[in-house]
Amino acid sequence: MPHRTALATGTLFALAAGLMWGLVFVAPLLLPQYPAAWLSFGRYFAFGLIALPLAWLDRRRIRGLARADWIDALKLSLIGNLLYYLLLAAAIQRAGGPLPTMIIGTLPVVIALASNRRNAARDGRLPWARLAPSLALIAAGIALVNHAELAQLRADTDLGRYAVGALLAVGAVACWTWYPIRNADWLRAHPDRSPTTWATAQGLATLPLAAAGALGFWAFSAANGSTFALPFGPTPLRFVALMLAIGLFASWLGTLCWNEASQRLPTMLSGQLIVFETLSALAYAFVLRGQWPAPGTLAGIALLVAGVAWALRARPTPLAAEAHAG
User: Which of 52, 62, 134, 215 has CA 20 to 30 A from 229's CA?
Assistant: First the structure.
């Protein structure tokens, strides 16, 4: 596939993934009475159930996965799915939508910095001078939006709650720095495998993890005399509908689109395109708030978009060519 075609197609897939992943920031705001752990287990139990019929339709390619592939899928599901969303949902419930969203928004910078050196042999290396402008624009955008959000929170008396939410969001960043790098490793090492099959495999791997976690949480809640009405809570129809919606769109379809992008783009570039998730989540959060973003937030969003546009212009240099030039 020509490089420009791969770049354009991969970018569109990353955009689609970001639009769907932004939905996961909505559920904790619409279901504030629900424990973050239950939202995480519910989302991924729904993902696993949705993967079952998809796996049957794709059973020939699913059977082709080796034991090592399933171990990788389990690791990715545990850290990049369950633990990540548990931390993220807890952060959003404590600090609201925009602040954790913007902490998660550091992912493009963190992943680009981590992968530019780690994956240089496979993807080529982007000289820091060419990487710096896009990262600087994205970092400045994050700082502007965070400044606007923190200014809004100064009048709140429960700053400790926001601090805990921020720390939980930092933990989510660590999980999702690891996930796309390791997921891209598998996809780039298996170019003959279908990204659809790998998305379904992760759903299958997630199902027993989510089921075990849900049973453990249920037993823990019962032992501690929790009054929360498990399994469906105080608004069962809304809970089930949201879990199925984000299980299908954010988990399976979002993972599929991200897999497609990861097979076409260097990890350093695809990492920066996670900013699409940040922009989508911000838009959804402000729609739920029913208010227009502050001027500082809008300026920050403009810088984020400019950073993405700059990142798409950069071309990594293969190490062989770099050595020859030296």
Answer: 52
